Amino acid sequence: MKTVDINCDLGESYGVYRMQWDEAVLPLITSANIACGYHAGDPATMRSTVERALEHQVAIGAHPGLPDLQGFGRRRMEITPQEAYDMVVYQIGALDAFVRSYGGCMHHVKPHGALYNMAAENMVLAEAIARAVYNVRPELYLYGLAGSQLIQAADRIGLRSVSEVFADRTYGSDGKLTPRSQAGAVIQQTELALAQVLRMVREGIVVSTEGAQVPLKAETICIHGDGEHALFFAREIRIRLEAEGMILTAAGTP
Questions:
Q1: Which stretch is the leader sequence (predicted)?
Q2: Nearest-CA neighbor of 169 among 92, 111, 226?
Q3: What confidence tens digit (pLDDT) does each residue in 30-57 have?
Q4: Using one digit for the tens of pLDDT, what is the confidence trace for 170-217?
Q5: pLDDT > 80? residue 218
Q6: Contacting residues for 19 by C-beta, under 8 A, at least 6 apart
Q7: The whole model's pTM is what?
Q8: What share of the chain is helix, strand, coil (3-state, %, to 5)?
Q9: How many CB atoms lie within 10 A of CB 115?
Q10: Residue 178 neighbours by CB under 8 Å, 6+ apart
Q11: How far is CA 202 from CA 4, 40, 133, in A?
Q12: Where are the domains of the chain?
């Protein structure tokens, strides 16, 4: 039977600003990418999200981003590979301390937002991020855009990679995500999201905004926790995948 992981970006509240779906989404997913304080999140949010994830037996991953709270880490910055390495090591360490304090074990790392997209395209940056993860804990999984430079960088150094696809984002014919600045970049309709997920998982294909069939490897499905329809998408995708006879589990777990 086919196995697939459902991941969600969580712990992105900051101070008095709260994301509304975190608690409700956790029972529906198999792995959580928890913000580490750069693009979102704060120590109290990190701690409470780790605690809730462990209670629900959800695999925990660090979600390091660019140091841009105001832009939610979605604005590109000119950074060197060394800067990328340092900020990823720093953020992994911060979250790992909370996980260990509760007797847990971190499962993966998934870069956030602009850092994720930059690493998908730039091999030197991708290698710096992969090396940061490997040097901190080589047994961790690295989640990256299917077919991207980040996946290739992880594979080259012996880091276990997990190819990620998106339920709520559209794709270009080059296999990259449609930029959020463009109309139609974010999928709002549940049936469209479900149809895209099922095709990616069953057939390894996504239909681009230009109508091309783009091959990709779908090992984990991302739902954005800050999305308006995050909870409904998570619930419906889980129901549909289970109805298809698929086993939902975090990458690498039985």
A1: none
A2: 226
A3: 999 999 999 999 999 999 999 999 999 9
A4: 999 999 999 999 999 999 888 999 999 999 999 999 999 999 999 999
A5: yes
A6: 10, 12, 13, 225, 226
A7: 0.95
A8: 40, 20, 40
A9: 28
A10: 169, 170, 171, 172, 184, 185, 209
A11: 11, 34, 30
A12: 3-248
- C-beta separation of 174 from 146 below 8 A: no
**Cβ(78)–Cβ(49) under 8 Å?**
no
CB 249 within 8 A of CB 5: yes
Token duo for residue 217: 């490897």
> What amino acid is encoded at 144 in this protein?
G
Q: Which fold has domain 3-248?
A: TIM Barrel (3.20.20)
Can you read off the two tokens belonging to residue 61? Answer: 């991953």
Strands 213-215 and 205-207: antiparallel
